[in-house]
Amino acid sequence: IVLNSHVSGVMNLFVVYFNGIRLLVDSPQPSVLATRGSSVTLPCHYRYEPELSAPRRTRVKWTWLPANTIATNEAFAEETKVMVAMGNRHRSYGSFKGRVRLRRSAPGDMSLVISELQLNDTGRYRCEVIDGLEDVSVTVELELRGVVFPYYAQKGRYHFNFFGAQQACLDQDGTLATFEQLLTAWEEGLDWCNAGWLADGTVQYPITVPRHGCGGENLAPGLRNYGQKQRLLHRYDAFCFSASIKGTVYYLNYPGKLNFTEASRACARDGGQIARVGQLFAAWKLKGLDRCDAGWLADGSVRYPITNPRANCGPPQPGVRSFGFPAPHMKFGVYCYQ
Ligand SMILES: *[C@@H]1O[C@H](CO)[C@@H](O)[C@H](O)[C@H]1NC(C)=O
Ligand SMILES: *[C@@H]1O[C@H](CO)[C@@H](O)[C@H](O)[C@H]1NC(C)=O
User: Fold this and answer.
1) Which end of the chain is more exposed for a tag (fewer CB within 10 A), N or C?
2) What percent of the chain lies above the pLDDT cut of 90?
């Protein structure tokens, strides 16, 4: 018999009874928020009741459902193996090889420690404890602290098929945003009336102020969802997700303004490189970068980050202001990354 009990709404506790003993598996945190590049611990413990006098051959298996498969294909999605352990032996798989270990801070502590977190490590992790034919599991959601930004091509709006959108986000130091990430961004006020690809292959856009042309005035605020689109044929913008890792984004102190070629060179001469769009957004959102000077970025766009809105620095909300993609001979400042 498997009993699922959610004790006090926070603790996840799962139990199986067999042969007069109970195997209990719990995780005190159903979801964990982490930072890109850091280490994170996904908690999972098991114990037997009554306590055992002799050790049993208990196995532990950690599997993973990537965030981009959760929203749409959950029923069909396959969990992939992260780590399998029995006794002191363990084995890790795929992109987790060499990056994961079990914490083992006490008997029954099977918490998973993942290091060097990448943008695409988000999703639902399952800790499954197996004793012979019996098994009990808990799940832990892993989310990353980061920022969602809408992105369109230099060639214009609605230019990317799904794969082009994937590449565009990667080029800007990001990854296609998941549904959850876009939802969080919407809750924090993102309003954007152009549809973009998400990691799950759907096309959506976030509206906080309903209006004509953006789903209509009578539709409640929310994510406007076009559903799954044809990944090769259909063309939209992209919603990318990024998070800062090591390094700094800064506005280059330079006498006078620069065209695009000069801007790239000036960053290189300063020991860095011209910043990518995802890096600027992450510096704005996560490090509070605020600068009322328009600057070139690596993709040929010109933008500036405002955390404290003020006169002559764009609209009254915080945000990264964009001048689009000006002609490359035009003169602006530049944002570099080091
Ligand atoms: C996740 O991102 C890393 C770094 O960008 C990449 O090397 C890896 O292949 C990606 N993994 C998956 C499953 O897409
Ligand atoms: C930028 O200015 C340099 C001269 O400083 C010039 O050689 C170059 O062609 C210009 N680049 C563009 C894209 O206008």
Assistant:
1) N
2) 80
Task: Say yes or no: CB of residue 39 within 6 Å of ligand 2.
Answer: no
Looking from the CA of residue 259, the nearest atom of ligand 2 is: 1
| Alpha carbon nearest to ligand 1 atom 1, residue | 120
**pTM listed for this prediction:** 0.86
Write out the two tokens for 266: 């000036």
Contact 285, 277 (CB under 8 A): no
Question: Which whole number is the average pLDDT over 59-71?
Answer: 84
- Interval 283-299 mean pLDDT: 96
CA dist 251 → 200, 257, 271 (Å): 35, 12, 13
DSSP three-state, residue 170: helix
Distance CA 115, CA 34 (A): 11
Residues with CB under 6 A from ligand 1: 95, 118, 120
DSSP state of 135: E
Q: Which residues pair with 128 in a beta bridge?
A: 61, 137
Q: Best of 80, 81, 97, 118 to mutate for ligand 1, by most ligand atoms within 8 A of CB?
A: 118
Looking at CATH, the fold of the domain delimited by 247-337 is given as Mannose-Binding Protein A; Chain A (3.10.100)
